[in-house]
Design brief:
This protein has 192 residues and is mainly beta. The protein has one helix and 16 strands.
Length: 192
C-alpha cells in the first residue's frame, strides 16, 4: 500500500555476504539541566540514581552526579552535582560543586561552587568563586579565600576595636616656672 503517493518498494533482502545490521539503539531520556551541566565530553561521569541510597564515603577522579541519597563524605577531583531532589548527608570536597538538592555538611570547592534555586546547604561553603541563584539557601558561613586549596579554612584573627580602652588625649600643659623668692608674698600677720 502506498502512502502519500509513494509507490510500495520491497525491502532489500540481505545478501549472505553482508554483515548483520547493528543493533538498534534505544534512545535515553534527556538529562535534567543540573545533570547535563555535569556531563563532560572527554571525561567519565558516575551517576547515583534517584532511587538509590548509598551509605559510605565516595572518592574518585571522575565527575559525580547524585540524583538519590548519599550518607557519607564525597571527595572527587573533578565536578560534583547534587541534583534537585537529591540529598547528601556529609562533607563534599571537589574542584567544582553544583547544588540543586540538599547538602547537610561542609562544601569545599577548590574552583567554584554554584547553588541552584532549589539548592539547600546546612554547613559552611568554602570556595574562591560562589554563584548563588535567587531562592537558594545556606545555613552556615560563606568563606571565599583567594585560593581555597592552599589557604587555611580557619578565620584570621582581627583586632576587636571595641575591647580597646578609650583614653582621652591629654592637654598639653607647660611645666610650672620656678618662683623667685624675692617676689613671694609674706604670710599674713608678719608685717613685711
Amino acid at each position: 500500500m502506498a502512502f502519500f503517493g509513494k509507490p510500495d518498494t520491497p525491502a532489500p533482502s540481505p545478501s549472505p555476504s553482508a554483515s548483520p545490521a547493528p543493533p538498534e539503539r534505544v534512545p535515553h531520556p534527556p538529562p535534567s539541566p543540573a545533570s547535563s551541566a555535569a556531563l563532560t565530553p572527554s571525561g567519565a561521569t558516575t551517576v547515583i540514581g534517584s532511587r538509590l541510597k548509598i551509605v559510605g564515603d565516595v572518592s574518585g577522579d571522575e565527575d559525580l552526579v547524585v540524583n538519590g541519597r548519599l550518607e557519607g563524605k564525597i571527595r572527587v577531583d573533578r565536578k560534583v552535582v547534587v541534583s534537585a531532589g537529591a540529598e547528601v548527608e556529609g562533607d563534599v570536597h571537589a574542584k567544582s560543586v553544583i547544588i540543586g538538592g540538599k547538602v547537610h555538611g561542609q562544601v569545599m570547592a577548590s574552583e567554584r561552587a554554584e547553588l541552584l534555586p532549589s539548592g539547600r546547604v546546612q554547613g559552611n561553603v568554602h570556595s574562591p568563586r560562589i554563584v548563588m541563584a535567587e531562592g537558594a539557601q545556606i545555613q552556615g558561613r560563606v568563606v571565599m579565600p583567594n585560593d581555597a586549596a592552599t589557604r587555611p579554612l580557619t578565620p584570621q584573627k582581627t583586632e576587636d576595636l571595641s575591647k580597646r580602652p578609650i583614653v582621652p588625649p591629654r592637654p598639653e600643659v607647660a611645666p610650672p616656672k620656678p618662683e623667685d623668692p624675692a617676689r613671694r608674698p609674706s604670710p599674713p600677720g608678719t608685717g613685711g
